[in-house]
Specification:
Length: 73
């Protein structure tokens, strides 16, 4: 699911793009109002999973674990 340098969490620029706000307190208020799941880090900035954003916006989150293939021959 996370290929190359793609990170699991949104970076600060992506949070600004998503919420429209630069300040963490405003980002947190926007995330709560729009029911996006997040947590707050020790730096008091919201941490948002990239997969949560994809899911909330109607996208499909790919599985990261491949299922074994059953062969009956």
């Amino acid at each position: 699911m996370f290929r190359g340098k793609e990170m699991m969490l949104l970076n600060q620029d992506e949070l600004v793009e998503l919420t429209g706000y630069k300040y963490p307190s405003k980002q947190i208020a926007w995330l709560r109002e729009n029911r996006f799941p997040f947590t707050v880090g020790g730096d008091r900035r919201p941490k948002v999973l990239r997969s949560a954003v994809v899911s909330m916006l109607g996208g499909v989150v790919e599985k990261t674990i491949e299922e074994p293939t059953l062969r009956l021959s």
